[in-house]
Write a structure and sequence with these properties.
alpha/beta; nine-stranded mixed beta sheet; two-stranded antiparallel sheet; 6 helices; binds zinc ion
Length: 284
Amino acid sequence: MKNKLSYSVFYTLTILSISCSPEVNEQGSQNVKPASATTRPEEAFPNQRGALQTTKLNGQTVIYQLFGDQAVFESDILLSERDLRQDDDLQVEGTGRTKASSRWPNKIVYYSISPSLPNQSRVLDAIAHWEANTPIRFVQRTTQRGYVLFQTGSGCSANVGYVGSVQYVNLASACTTGNTIHEIGHTIGLWHEHSRADRDTYVDINTGNIITGYESDFQTYVQRGTDGFDSPGGLDFGSVMMYGSYDFSKNGLPTITKKDGSTFVSQRNGLSETDIQTVLSMYP
Ligand SMILES: [Zn+2]
């Protein structure tokens, strides 16, 4: 079944998007009740898990989840059909995409905000933060083919990097300006900081404490079968793209600890100095 899926995921997605079977969705997703001490980073579909799927990228197995026809990994990263195509490798750095075609041309992000999205100031504030700290510029879309649409979602989620057609930042009412800064980080091409290849030098992943079904959210890009390199300076606990110690805990015990066993908190106030340097290296 897995092999079959790995060779036909693109077609499966296409079929699902045309004739989506509710039975498949009902059977494939499950409600997940976390421990009360659990903290949660951005999620596309809070408190749900989609049907686990695998595909092959660069000859390695990538685990993701299907919610209807939307493929998601690491909880808030939306995968486009292009991402999942066998002939279009998903390439990443420690925290960002390396592939030139996954970066916004001329450092310009064309965007549109859905008129029905509540509290649009969080989007404008997040954009202002990005423009104040990086060379990325945001321009309202007119006729551009590739652009990001900020719209209402069931949670907070985004595509990673430039897609070339409409792509999304989905924001539920609970998503803050800080969450929006994080999601724009994905839009620009950043992955989660804890998925760096060298993260085991800095942290332990306590798999036994992770809510069942969320284990793949804690993979490195090497474990995901994608290539790249880590930004210099080591793992940045202050990154706006970093998970916290208790994220997705099933028992109130930490899912990520520092090597000395201590815990830490994640922040969603804004880009760290390392985040900014990583973006500068991607968009020189
Ligand atoms: Zn994220």
